[in-house]
Amino acid sequence: MSDEILYHSQMISFLEELWGDGFLSPGGADEVKKVLEGIKIKDQRVLDIGSGSGACAVLLAKNYFAKQVVGIDVEVPVCDAARDHVLAAGLSEKISIELVSPGQLPFEDGSFQVVFSKDSIIHIQDKSALAADVFRVLKPGGQFAASDWLISHGGQPSPEMSEYIKAEGLDFAMASPSEYKEALVKAGFVEIELVNRNPWYSKIAVNELEWLKGPERKDLSKRHGENFINHQVEIWTKLVQVLKSGEHCPHHIRAKRP
After folding, report:
1. pTM of structure
2. Residues 6 or more apart from 155 whose CB is under 8 A from it?
3. Which of 42, 111, 160, 228 could disulfide-link 107, Cβ–Cβ 3.0 to 4.6 Å?
4. DSSP class of 143
C-alpha cells in the first residue's frame, strides 16, 4: 500500500452518508449478515481486517455476540473514526481498534477463531501471502469470512476497468475468483465458498449513481465540495459500466482451517 492517506475525513464522511454510519462499503448490516452465513461468531475471538470506521466491529460484538473483536487498519483517520463508534456503542471492553503497518498480521499463531473482512483486502497485493497469514492466525477449526471486490478474469483488466481503477485513485489489487480459490487451497483451507454478488451490487450502484446525479447533488456538493462530488459521479459512471459487463464482480468468500 502507498503512504498516501486514501480514506481521509472527507472520504469517510461521504461514504458514510452513502452507505451508512460507520460503513465504508455497501450493503450495511444486511450484507454483513450474508457474509457471515454459516459462521459461528458468538463467544468467539474475531479479527476484523480493514475495520474501517468501525460499524462491522460494533455489529460483530453487539449483534453477533463475539467474545472479543480486534479491528485493524493501516490509516489513522479510519482508526480514529472506528474508536469513536466503539466508544459511542459502549463496547470499548469488547472491541479494540489497532493501527497496524501493511504486511504480516501482527498476531501469534492460532490467535483467533474467526477472521472477518468487509471489502478491504482489495488493497492487499499478494493474496497467497494473505491467505497463508489468515490461516496462520486462525485456530484449528477456525473460519475465514470476507467480502471483497474482484475482477472476473486473470491477466490485464480491460480498458474500461483500467479507467475505472484509475478514476478511483485507490491502490486496488483486484484478483479473480480462481486466484482467490487457488490462494486459499494453497494455504490449506477447506470448505471454500465464493459467492458472486455482482447481480446485487450492479442494481445498487445504478441507484447510487442516480442519487449522486439527482436532486441531492446540490446539497451533496455543499457538504462535500463540488469538485469532490463531480469526481464521484465520474467514478460511479465508470463503475456501473464494469459492473454491467460483469468484469467487476464483488464476492463473498468463506473458508475453514481444518
Report:
1. 0.95
2. none
3. 111
4. E
Assess contact for 233 and 102: CB atoms under 8 A: no
Is the pLDDT assigned to residue 202 strictly greater than 60? yes
Burial class (CB in 10 A: 0-12, 13-18, 19+), 34: middle
Domain 9-196+249-256: which CATH class?
alpha beta
Q: Which residue ranges make up each domain of the chain?
A: 9-196+249-256
Q: Which residue has the cell 486459499?
A: 184
Q: Are 137 and 107 a contacting pair, CB within 8 Å?
A: yes
Check residue 60 and give its pLDDT: 98
Find residue 253's DSSP bridge partners: 146, 194
Name the strand (E) or helix (H) holding 95.
strand 95-99
**221-255: pLDDT as tens digits:** 999 999 999 999 999 999 999 999 999 999 999 99
H-run or E-run covering 199: helix 198-213
pLDDT tens profile 61-76: 999 999 999 999 999 9
